[in-house]
Amino acid sequence: MKEVFAAVAISRTKRAEGGALDVQLIDAAGRKTAVRVSAEVALRLAQELLDFAEGASSGLDTSLAKRPKSFAVGTGRYENLVLVRFDDEAPYALDAVDAADLGEALIEQSEDVCERPEKVLQ
Hints:
alpha+beta
């Protein structure tokens, strides 16, 4: 198996023929490697790097995130609360203001995700 080149710095970038971009990377030992990427690959790479950076700075590791198969939303029978349940776990009880804030945050984040280009694993 080929050794992974662990870049620690970008030493040079320049535009190449055909609308491509040449990028030279350096590892901790000072070794250099160069890559040439098309505009399409650069766009996808930029989004991947942004997602990675945002996840790293937020401390969230999405690979460990739980993905429920089902959810339910309802109201409390004896209290004025909004109930949110995922799968068969115990429900979360939120007051109306917190539930509205959660709803707005979910809409905002889902709109952001919908605007991103689809990820393609190769």
